[in-house]
Amino acid sequence: MSENISDINYKQVIEYALEPLIIHSDLKIIDINHAGELFFRASKKDIIGASPLDIFKNTSKSSIEKRIQSAYDQPAKVIEETIYRMDGTTVDVELYCHPVWLGDTKAIQTYIWDITDRKEMEKKQKEMSNQINELSSVLVPLLDGIAVLPLFGAIDDEKANQLLVNVPIRVKKQHVKYLIIDFTGIYNIDTIVVSSIFKITSVLSILGVRCIATGLRPELAMVVVQLDVNFVSIPTLSSVQEALKMLGIAGSSETLTF
Q: How many angstroms separate the most distant Cα atoms in the chain?
């Protein structure tokens, strides 16, 4: 025997939901499920009757109130916010709300997802990315006046700009006269990489620094050819060791020309 969908107890549905749910109308909370009690670290009696705006920072309350009012007509988009629990601690969440009828009362049902772990992971990934970007512009001194710029990973616009800003400064600071730009750690090459390298070598040339490119693997070299890039102005060798041999064969770094 099939049951009519209208026979489902809505209150039970939200009560046993695993994610925190709040029902509010006219800026007053009229119900919250058990997961919501655990999340906000308070009981129903402490939460019901309060304003849903109370959990938001003062800087967000105005926009949240407008969002709530518009949600009476249609579901609002998912947003990220930092909200307060009842014990005063803050937590990063995603919020989604939509209109719902409770008898004759039109209300808003708000879903809350704790994204603390995700935000922490994003923070760590950003820190790691910053560290990688920082390392990517580190010059490794080899001999007097000779250094290597080891490139690795993927180079996007942000990383390319960091290289363009940082490398000339480090070259000048370390009194580098010959810079070996090593592509061994680059697993993908495109117009961004090529453009950034040519900009760097152009700036370094003005500063009196000569550049050598090394480590361009065959598959990367093929991409360079497909991009119709002319590397004639930059000597290219298979490895850093070969570049050092080139420098050694030419005599002292003071007399090297290419």
A: 95
| Total-model pTM | 0.54
Helix, strand or coil for residue 38?
helix
- 37-80 residue pLDDT tens: 999 999 999 999 999 999 999 999 999 999 999 999 999 999 99
Contacts of 227 (CB under 8 A, 6+ apart): 190, 191, 194
**In terms of DSSP H, where are the helices of the chain?**
10-15, 34-40, 44-47, 58-71, 116-136, 157-173, 191-206, 218-226, 240-249
What's the rounded Cα separation, in Å, for the pair 218 and 235? 16
What secondary structure does DSSP assign to 208-251, as a single string?
Answer: T-EEEEE---HHHHHHHHHTT---TTS-EES-HHHHHHHHHHT-
Pair 100, 21: CB distance under 8 Å: no
Looking up tokens 């518009």, which residue turns up?
70
* Backbone dihedral angles phi then psi of residue 245, each to the nearest 5 degrees: -65, -40
Span 100-137, pLDDT tens digits: 998 889 999 999 999 999 999 988 877 766 665 555 55
The model's pLDDT over 216-225, given as tens digits with 9 standing for 90+, comes to: 877 777 776 7
Q: Is 156 in a helix, a strand, or coil? A: coil
Q: Give the count of alpha carbons within 13 A of 45, CB side only.
A: 0
Helix (H, G, I), strand (E, B) or coil at 207: coil
